[in-house]
Design goal:
With 499 residues, the chain is α/β, with parallel strands linked by helices. It is built from 15 helices and 20 strands. The strands form 5 sheets. Strands 14-15-16-13-12-17-18 form a 7-stranded mixed beta sheet, with helices on both faces. Strands 9-8-7-10-11-19 form a 6-stranded mixed beta sheet, with helices on both faces. A hairpin with a 2-residue loop joins strand 1 and strand 2. The longest helix has 24 residues. The structure holds nicotinamide-adenine-dinucleotide.
Length: 499
């Protein structure tokens, strides 16, 4: 077995190691046949931490061949044995929690605390996958005299997942547990910006006893993705990333009859009404829009301030000013993303909005990384780009409204529909908002309403393309196809020995 070991030293948080990211095919590291590679940048330090190979069609074919060869034996293994691998993955992830978190903080720029939180959520998804061994029965019924119908959940075959930069370990674990326990073999295409978290996972799965070829990784970008989505032999593709790519893959996957589930971008609205608890609300709003430096699809983005809530807005601003980049708030993934975020703030200011908290000049002493501090833009209008488009940074745009219904109309008009939240101490107010939000994941006094397992993850409208959600039992249904079996047995007249 080829070992890939990151030169990890949890005590040396400022050290940027240099590691080549190769493909993982049939249980070993391989260079890409294309020979192409690009730098991977540590966004906290602004330094290259290695090169990642860029795979072409031939590399995807290699991964497909390995996955096809591994399929018959893996599929034939009883589900309980497949699930045992996941129990061991959980134990290994827990034993290596520091390393996994450190790795994420380097390739993605998260603070250690937020990196750790995302690995823990990944472990929760592994637990869900492992418990499928007790929950994946198909159901049966005697539908007529002597006739029984039953359902068997069969694997699809070779399947694939394409994932974004913002959660390099957790998002692959939205897919792998259900897909693998269901009996499929898998090709994972990580984000080229953050190849290492997935690589470390591949080794952990191997150490946990996953047979070689059941999980394969091809690195790269558009070329690898297009080969996967057009591949006749790959039966399903799950995607998590931006809306244009999710939408394109959903349509394109249909050409080869694939199942496609594409989670896209987001623009999440928080509504604050005058009866909201000031402390709970302000703390929660700050955590929601600045967590992971706003680079999460569940981050708050627009604050709809209903009526007289200045005291809450002031506390949000005060708390935001206290956050220290590099300590409380992580880095932005790239210089390009940083510039995009700053452009949204500049444009809103030029259009007449007030920059209540300004993170544009944020720096971290001694770091050449990419920083934007918490930023609050007050006095926004629904037409402004900072309100309509996904910024994906620690920026909160505030729109003032006179009524709750006015606020809900603004939320409803967004083409996205990932998450929405209301802050109130009134059950009746909360229920009115919950019944009207155009969002798949809603919160009351929780600004990041991520459904915990076994509840599945997924938004509505332009935030999701496809049927069902990711994770939970929906994940298992996505990665399987139901075989319906109808059985009738009758005694033969010559079976006189029966009774
Ligand atoms: P992205 O869409 O740029 O990239 C996602 C994946 O698609 C990567 O693996 C990338 O290599 C590939 N890709 C990029 N452009 C492509 C193209 N033109 N053709 C084919 N493949 C392409 O997204 P990102 O910048 O890595 O991640 C941020 C986005 O992901 C945000 O929009 C965020 O909201 C979204 N996101 C959504 C969820 C969710 O659950 N809805 C979760 C996490 C992130």
């Amino acid at each position: 077995m080829t070992r890939w070991k990151f030169p990890f030293d949890a005590r040396d948080y400022e050290f940027t190691p240099y590691v080549q990211a190769q493909n993982w095919i049939g249980g070993e590291w391989r260079p890409a046949r294309s020979g192409a590679a690009e730098d991977v940048i540590n966004p906290r330090h602004g330094k290259a931490m290695g090169k990642v190979v860029f795979s072409g069609a031939a590399d995807v074919e290699d991964a497909f061949a390995a996955a096809t060869a591994a399929l018959p034996a893996w599929k034939a293994m009883p589900i309980r044995e497949r699930a045992q691998v996941l129990y061991r993955v959980k134990a290994l992830m827990e034993a290596n929690l520091d390393e996994l978190s450190w790795l994420l903080s380097h390739e993605n720029g998260k603070t250690i605390a937020q990196a750790r939180g995302s690995v823990l959520k990944g472990i929760e998804c592994v637990e869900m996958g492992a418990s499928l061994q007790n929950m994946a029965d198909g159901g049966q019924l005697d539908v007529s005299r002597g006739v029984n119908c039953r359902v068997i959940h069969e694997p699809l075959g070779v399947v694939a997942g394409i994932v974004p930069f913002n959660f390099p370990t957790m998002v692959p674990l939205w897919m792998l547990p259900q897909a693998l326990v269901a009996g499929n073999t898998f090709i994972l295409k990580p984000s080229e910006k953050v190849p290492y978290g997935a690589m470390r996972l591949a080794e952990i799965f191997q150490e946990a006893g996953l047979p070689d070829g059941v999980l394969n990784i091809v690195h790269g970008g558009k070329d690898a993705v297009e080969t996967i989505i057009d591949h006749e032999g790959i039966k399903a593709v799950a995607f998590v990333g931006s809306t244009p790519v999710a939408k394109m893959l959903y349509a394109r996957g249909a050409q080869t009859g694939k199942k496609v589930l594409g989670l896209g971008g987001a623009k999440n609205h928080l509504v604050v009404v005058p009866d909201a608890s000031p402390q709970v609300t302000s703390d929660n709003i700050v955590a929601s829009y600045t967590g992971c430096a706003g680079q999460r699809c569940m981050a708050a983005s627009v604050l709809l301030a209903v009526g007289e809530v200045d005291h809450i807005v002031e506390q949000v601003a005060q708390r935001s000013r206290e956050l220290v980049p590099g300590k409380d708030i992580g880095a932005i993934i790239s210089q390009e993303s940083r510039e995009r975020i700053l452009r949204y703030i500049d444009e809103a200011e030029a259009a007449g909005a007030t920059i209540l908290v300004d993170g544009r000049g944020a720096t971290v002493p001694g770091s050449e990384g990419y920083w934007v501090g918490p930023t609050i833009i007050d006095g926004c209008t629904p037409e402004m780009a900072c309100v309509r488009e996904e910024i994906f940074g620690p920026v909160l745009s505030i729109i003032r409204t006179s009524t709750l219904d006015e606020a809900l109309a603004i939320e409803n008009a967004s083409p996205f529909g990932n998450a929405a939240c209301i802050y109130t101490t009134s059950g009746a107010v909360a229920e009115r908002a919950l019944s009207r939000f155009e969002a798949g994941m809603c919160g009351v006094n929780i600004g990041v309403p991520v459904p915990r397992e076994p509840f599945a993850f997924g938004g509505w409208n332009d935030s999701k393309f496809g049927h069902g959600d990711m994770t939970g039992m929906d994940g298992f249904r996505f990665w399987t196809r139901p075989r319906k079996v109808t059985v009738k047995w009758e005694l033969q007249s010559d079976q006189t020995w029966m009774s």
